[in-house]
Every structure is written in C-alpha cells, then in structure tokens.
Design goal:
208 residues; alpha/beta; Lysozyme-like; 6-stranded mixed β-sheet; 12 strands; globular; cell wall biogenesis/degradation; cytoplasm; Amidase_domain
C-alpha cells in the first residue's frame, strides 16, 4: 500500500502539492458554494472524486511542452496541423504525469479546474465541481509506464490524506459515449493494488 508522508503541512500549501512542479493555469474558477439557505454560511462541496484522463499533443507524440502550453493558453495553434482542430480551446487539469513520472500541477486542488466537461457520476452532475483531475501523458487505449503508476499512486495517496476522497474514475466513466480515456490500456487493478483501497472506490472494470 502506498502511504503519503505524515503531516499535511509537509505536502500541501493552499491546495498545491509540494512534490509537483507548479505552472499556474488561468483556466480555473472557484468551486460552487452550497448550503446558503436561511442565512447559513456557504460551503464548497466535498472534493471526493479523482478523475483520470490521458493526453498527448499531437496525439501519440510524447515529450515537449505542448500540453503545458495548452493548459496555460500559450499553445501556438500553427505549430502542428492537429492544433488547428482545437484552436481556442481553454482547458486545464489539476495535475499532469509525464511518461517518466514527472509531476506538474496547474490548478490548486482547492479550486475548480476545467477537465471534466459535461459529466455525471454516481448520481451527480458537473464533476468539475467536486473532483480533482489528473492527466496521464499517453494515448487513449495505449499502455502507460511504470513510472506513471508510481507517481499516480503516491499522488492519490496524498490526495486522500488531505481531501475526503471516496471514488476514482476515468473520463470514460463520467462522460460515457463522449470520452474514452484513459481507455483499456490503463490497468485499474494495478492502481488499486498499489493503493490498497477498497473496490468500491473504483469503477466497475475487468480485473484482467
């Protein structure tokens, strides 16, 4: 089982993970307030879902800084023909795990990143409101590297130490029919075994 370092002060500072390389994205907003009836103080929803994605720009090409540029609105749309098809897109994720396991963070986990889009999971809509988005450098359906699983496991453990995480799912599970990442190449049983979390935390996928 992967365990996070003890003491939130060691790992977190205002929703920023101290073991990630920070690069601020402008594409974020506050999490919506709840509980404001009858003068009650408004509070943000519990951050209890982790959503996994896969991304590579251009698709299937690894390395470079195109993903970082996309999330910070500095991508040169003329640098590759594929970029014209996503020109003007404004998105972000909280975290990005490179093929070598290097970890980047673009948005504080206390804030709402723009990673899920139109989504629904376990009876709730708008998953951006209560989730943390993690992008894995990879191509939808392809395999991921051992270093990525190692970083992802450590990150998930640290998130669960700091936030009331109760579920983890793929983009394919919160937006079925619209999204299919990270896809069949992602080994959910491997992540579950590494974390030691109960099965009910995970989507219903094959154990093969």
């Amino acid at each position: 089982m992967v365990t996070a370092l003890s003491g939130d002060g060691v790992l977190w500072d205002g929703g920023w993970y101290r073991h990630a390389r920070r690069l601020d994205s402008p594409n974020f907003g506050p999490r919506p307030a709840t509980g404001h009836a009858l003068g009650d103080a408004s509070t943000a929803p519990e951050i209890d879902l982790i959503v996994l994605h896969s991304i590579s720009l251009p698709p299937g090409q690894y390395g470079g800084d195109a993903v970082q540029r996309l999330f910070t609105n500095t991508l040169d749309w003329n640098a590759h023909p594929y970029f014209k098809s996503i020109e003007g897109l404004q998105v972000s994720a909280h975290f990005y795990v490179r093929r070598d396991g290097a970890l980047w963070q673009f948005v504080s986990c206390d804030d709402r990143a723009w990673h899920a889009g139109v989504s629904h999971y376990c009876g709730r809509d708008n998953c951006n409101d209560f989730s943390i988005g993690i992008e894995l450098e990879g191509l939808e359906g392809d395999a991921f590297e051992a270093a990525q699983y190692e970083t992802l496991s450590s990150l998930c453990a640290a998130l669960a130490q700091h936030y009331p995480v109760r579920q983890i799912a793929g983009h394919e599970h919160i937006a079925p029919g619209r999204k299919a990442d990270p896809g069949p190449g992602f080994q959910w049983p491997r992540l579950q075994s590494s974390l030691g979390w109960p099965a009910q935390y995970f989507p219903e996928v094959s154990a093969s």
